[in-house]
Structures are given as structure tokens and as C-alpha cells.
Amino acid sequence: MRFLITILFLFTFFCLGFGQSAAALEDKLAKATADADKMDLKYELAKIYSESSSKREKALAYIKDAYGLATKIKDKYMLGKIAYLEGETLLKKREKLRAVSRFKLAKDNAVKAQDYETAIKSIQKLSAIAAQGGNYKDAYEYTREGLKIVGKGGGSTSSSSGSTSASEKTINKLITEKKKLENENRRLEKDKRALKEEVFSLENKIKTGSSTLTPEQRKILSELGEKEKQLEDLATAKQAADDRRKQLERKYDKLSKEEMRNEALLKEQETELLAAEIETEKQTNFRNILFGALGSLGLILMLVFGRLRANRKAKKEIEAKSKIIDEERKRSDELLLNILPADIAKELKEKGKVQAKKFNDVSVLFTDFKNFSGIAERMTADQLVNELDHCFKAFDYIISQYDSIEKIKTIGDAYMCAIGLNVKKGQASDLVKAAVEMQDFMEEYKQDRSRNHKPFFEARIGIHTGPVVAGMVGFNKFAYDIWGDTVNIASRMESNGMVGRVNISDSTFNKVRSQFKCDYRGKISAKNKGEIDMYFVNKAV
């Protein structure tokens, strides 16, 4: 029993430390300005979130951002580390094909940065995945490649990392809770002061007879004035009685002692009766005034508290409705960004329409599956849609690694994207890299399906570079599209290509010839353009 309690305590303590660590990093990230700092913080957050099965999508988002920043600042060392972390995260999600692609990228980046430790770890992962899938030949080749890297200077793959102590995390959490309580106390004190000021103001209004008082309050003030006047009248009457008494005393001096005694006794009785009457009247008037003032003050306080409660309730309702509106606006924006490029969506929201534009240097990519109709006949409707969705999602993920590549549309089994359309000017070489990654994915997909004796798709990919016109068409189910000879020639490059290869035109070849080795494969005739040279992309230089 004691053992179970200890385990539960340690688990709770770990969770508290985990939350505090992630929260602290998130806070630092919000304040960071340098790209290198942002990259490191996002990498650390991704490592933390990748450990939780419910937060791995968030980890992948941070990985993507960190990889983009590493690319921007040309940190070759971190490119390998980030790609390796992405591979591990995908492996935890059981997405082996995508994980293999990331481990290969991590290996290549690590070798370029001479980070042999990360390179060897990536090769170990690739070898293990290949062996698990029964592909022992690839596993053997990965092992040989790892031995070569060890010969160059690679070492142990073990690593260690520090962690914030659990006590420090607990203290930080208590400090945070204390700050929250202090803020709540300051808010309550502010409300209390405001209430006191309002009551004080109302009391002043009662005393001064402000014109803003209600008719009932004016009536009470009028009664108070009449009672005060009665008191003044009684005081005047008492003064008159005193004067009369003095006159009688002078008269009594002239009377006999007996008469003076009788007269004095009678006068004393009259005076006592008059004083008693005056005192009784004063007490009655004071009691009436006091009860009236207290009743008015209680009514005013009830009105004040009622208004405060109503204001708080209305404020909560407004905040709840504002939150709902913000969430709906966010969902609407996300849906619009899923349909249109970011700059086009922004223009549509601001102006209500999109101005067509001409771009002079755009590279267009087309993919198509060989013998799609024949393969589709061998699948059920659900299987066909699932396989297309699997392939197109992989293509979407690949181009998402390049901020400047825009997906245009899918037409049946064809996939179309382009680079050079948005404010982030991209290079044709990025589109060619993406095309090579697509063919690598299709090869892995083919091997996986073949081992399980299932039908598979094979893709042709074609790319051409030139001018296009871009704009948005339609009212219902509107779409962003591009037009021009460049689009048509890119389609011709695809249809005249071969499965598993990337076929590019001479205009694209001239832009990437220093980065890729290409094989010349002849000419094709294009309408209104004459003959165009074609090249197969082999690999990066």
C-alpha cells in the first residue's frame, strides 16, 4: 500500500513539474525576439509535447516552425536534430512511412553538419524500421552506411539532458497561485471602494437635496425639513415660556408670601407639563426622522447592490458571447485559409473580392497516377477513396514544409501545386525537392503495398516554369486557380514523363541545373511554343 501511494505521489509531482516547465517555455517563447531563441524554445517545447499522446499534433506544429527557423538562419546542426525529433514523434504515432522520410532527412542534414551522433541515431532508426518490415536488405545497407559514418568520426548515440527540480517547479506554481489570489483581492478591494463611493455620493445627495433624487426621496427630505421646523418652533415656544416665567416672578415679588407660594407651585406645575410635552414631541420627531432616514438609506443600498449584481451578470454574458463570436470567427478564418492562400484570403476579407494578378516566374507541378482506372476497378469505393486520401495527404504534408509552395487543387487522381504565387518568393529548386520527396514516398508506399499483395498507385510528375494569371472564380463554392500556357506545358511534362521520375522542361532545368543532376531526354512539341527540351531529375548535386 505504501509503495502504491509513493508511486501516485511521484506521478502527480512529475505532472506538476511537466506543466510548469512547458508553461515557462511558452512564456519565454512569447517574449523571444531572435530567430535562434525562438527555434531553440520551439524545439524544447516539441520534445516535451511529443511525450504526451494527446499533444503530439502540437509537437509536430512546433517542429515545423523550428525547422523553418533553422532553415532561415542556416543552422545545419539543428536541421538534423529537428528532423530526427520529428521522425521519433511520427514513429510514436505509428506513421512509419512519414517517419522514414524524416529520419532520412535528419541523416542527410546531420552528415552535412558533421553531427555524426544524430546521423548514426537516424540510421539505427531506419535499420530497425526496415528490419521490422522484413526488408533485411535495406536494414543491412543502413548498417553499412552507419559503419562508414563511424569511420568518419561518429561516436556513441547516448545523450543526457538536465531537468528542473520538482521542488523548484512546485515553488513556481505556488508563486503563480499567490499572484492570482493577489490580483483577485485587488479586484474585490476596487469593487468595495467603488461601492463605498457610490453610497457616500447618495448620502451627500440626500443631505444636499440633489435634483437627481426620486420623488419618494424628495418627500422624505421635505418631511425632514418640516420636523426640523417644528423643533425650531418648539424651541421658540420654550423661550417665550421662559420670558413669561421671568415676568411672573417679578409680579410674585409684589404678592404675599402665601400667594407667591401658591402661584409659584402652579407655575412650576405648568412649566413641568410644558417641558414634558416638548420633550415627548422632540423624541417622537427624532424617532420618526431616524426611521425615515434609515429606511431611505436601506432602499438606496438595495438599489446599489442590485445594480452591481446586474452589471456583473451582464458583463459575464457579454464576455461569454464575445468568446463564442471569437471562436466562430477563428473557425471561419481557418476554413477560409484551408481554401485560399493566406494573402488571397486577407484580400477577400478586406475588399470583398480578389483582383486577378499576373506572375512572370511561376513553377507549376502536376502529378498523375498511371493506369488509375484499371487499379480503381480492383478496389471498393471506400478503399479507392482511402488510398487517394492517403497519397494526397502525404503530398500536402511534403509541400507544407516549404512556405512558398501553394496547393492549387486536385482533379480526380491529379494533384496540382505551384511556387512563386505568394509574397514569400520561392525558388524552383524547392518545388523540385518537393517532387523528389513525393516520388520517394510513392516508392515506399509501393513497397509496403507489394509486400501485402495489395494494388498500388505509381505517379508521374511534371514541372514547367513560366508566366501565369492567377485569380478567384465562382460565387458558390468559389476556387482559386491559375491559367496560361505554363499550366498546359506543365501538364504535358507530366503526361510525357515516366512513373517514379520527375520530368522538367528546359525553363525549369535552367533554374535548378546547379543544384540537381539531370538527364536530357529529348524534345516534345507544344502548341504555340514549338519544341521544348525535357530532362529527368536524378539527384541533388
What do you see in this structure?
The model is unreliable at 1-19 and 156-168 (pLDDT under 50). The chain is 69% helix and 13% strand. It has 3 domains: 2-152, Tetratricopeptide repeat domain (Serine Threonine Protein Phosphatase 5, Tetratricopeptide repeat); 213-330; 356-540, Nucleotide cyclase, GGDEF domain (Alpha-Beta Plaits). The chain is α+β, with helices and mostly antiparallel strands and 541 residues long. Helix 1 (2-31) packs antiparallel against helix 2, helix 5 packs antiparallel against helix 6 (116-132) and helix 9 packs antiparallel against helix 10 (257-339). The chain has helices at residues 2-31, 35-49, 56-73, 76-92, 96-112, 116-132, 136-152, 166-208, 215-252, 257-339, 342-351, 372-376, 381-400, 428-451, 485-495, 506-512, and strands spanning 357-369, 405-411, 414-419, 459-473, 479-483, 502-505, 516-526, 530-540. It has 16 helices and 8 strands. Strands 1, 2, 3, 4, 5, 6, 7 and 8 form an 8-stranded mixed beta sheet that branches.
